[in-house]
Specification:
This protein is α+β, with helices and mostly antiparallel strands. Helices cover about 30% and strands about 30% of the residues.
Length: about 180
């Protein structure tokens, strides 16, 4: 794909639409702003400790199981009513989905046809919530590549949590690596 020469583009003032127009105003060029990376951390017993989201500009961080389960669903519902689809990426998405939704909620959403899970003999591909919010597994594109290896490629060193997975800075770095 050919890069857009940003010297001949001016930004429309309505930043939420994220539409850029060539100066000659003939054809609008859509710039995607609905890409997010996410990561979760748990206590290794299935209880989520942290959930984080990053859109390349800012982080959203939720702490504790109640806040994670309630606020992440609130966020996904906001994403689902947008005009455009939203795409969330993670390096171990099935793990993150289980932390964000919990199995009981996943079953209920499946019964109500609010989520669709795409899974093949090769493993988890993606999940779609309310036909608008797509949860994409990065391992389908970077097979066998750890967050540490991805970080080296993009110039972001993976942090060592020193056994503390309730560490916001550690999680934020992983999210930045996933986004990169």
């Amino acid at each position: 794909m050919k890069d857009i020469d940003m010297n001949w583009i001016e930004q429309k003032e309505d930043w939420k639409k994220r539409i850029f127009f060539p100066i000659n105003k003939k054809v609008p060029i859509q710039i995607i702003d609905n890409l997010w990376a996410l990561d979760t951390e748990d206590n290794s017993k299935g209880v989520p400790l942290l959930a984080g989201f990053y859109n390349g500009k800012s982080f959203i961080i939720y702490k504790g199981i109640e806040e994670i389960l309630f606020r992440s669903m609130e966020l996904f519902n906001q994403m689902a009513v947008q005009k455009r689809h939203t795409y969330l990426f993670s390096n171990n998405m099935i793990y993150d989905i289980l932390n964000l939704f919990q199995m009981k909620r996943i079953k209920a959403l499946l019964e109500k046809n609010l989520i669709e899970i795409i899974y093949t003999h090769g493993g988890f591909i993606s999940m779609v919530y309310k036909k608008k919010v797509h949860f994409i597994e990065l391992q389908n594109y970077f097979r066998g590549m750890s967050a540490e290896k991805m970080g080296k490629i993009i110039g972001l060193e993976k942090l060592d949590p020193h056994g503390d997975y309730n560490n916001i800075e550690y999680m934020k770095r992983d999210i930045q690596i996933h986004y990169g």
